[in-house]
Amino acid sequence: EVQLVESGGDSVQPGGSLRLSCAASGFTFSTYWMHWVRQAPGEGLVWVSYVHSDASATSYADSVKGRFTISRDNAKSTLYLQMNSLRVEDTAVYYCARAVSGSLDLWGRGTLVTVSS
Amino acid sequence: DIQMTQSPSSVSASVGDRVTITCRASQGISRWLAWYQEKPGKAPKLLIYEISTLQSGVPSRFSGSGSGTDFTLTISGLQPEDFATYYCQQAQSFPLTFGGGTKVEIK
User: Quick one: closest CA in B to A6, which residue?
Assistant: First the structure.
């Protein structure tokens, strides 16, 4: 089955760190650009970061630049998001998504990150 | 950054109605416009990409149109399963940006 499954979400204090994972299956992970998108409670979708299929390029939203790092392990078909210096405003469901023609055609079900003291 | 302005933010409609949602980009985005459907507790679902290309498996009652900076998503003959929130998204440049969403509610 073609799917993405996120994990690693948790409740942490401000200033803490988390590492999210996204396990891909059912398709050739190494040929796709991958993205992280988040959604705060009751809010809309916000793009977080992208990584090229061979990890040669990345991009970040200004709100996470310098704090979050996207990476991938094509041998393990897994996408990662290392999140440091977490803030209350980073509280959200984090989705990983596969990109095709600029659109995100396959999404995981998301993992919840809660940042609270 | 390219801003995506969606309207209306919500719409009440009945089964069988035609619903049109608009999305305006702050600058030209060529063909890099997609539409998504989101239901509570579920992952967003791609409906349309490159302005008007229907994603595989999406019913033909969904259609997209537009050019330059102005785009529309039309649902012709609203079905019960279509009550959801819809988002547009541009991929002309990073950061990718989404519209604020349109909630389609039952009248």
Answer: B43
> Would the pLDDT of A101 be above 90?
no
Instruction: Answer yes or no: do B96 and A47 touch at CB < 8 A.
Output: yes
Whose CA is closest to A55, among A39, A83, A78? A78
Distance from CA of B21 to the nearest CA of A (A): 16
**A49 touches A59 (CB < 8 A):** yes
Could you give the CA distance from residue A109 to residue B35 in angstroms, rounded to a whole number?
A: 18
SS3 B81: helix
Task: Report residue B12: phi and psi, to 5°.
Answer: -100, 130
How many CB atoms within 10 Å of residue B27? Answer: 12
Instruction: Select from A6, A37, A104 the residue whose CB has the most chain B CBs within 10 Å, as the one to mutate to test that interface.
Output: A104
Dist CA B1 CA B10 (whole Å): 25
Q: What are A70-89's pLDDT values in tens digits?
A: 999 999 999 999 999 999 99
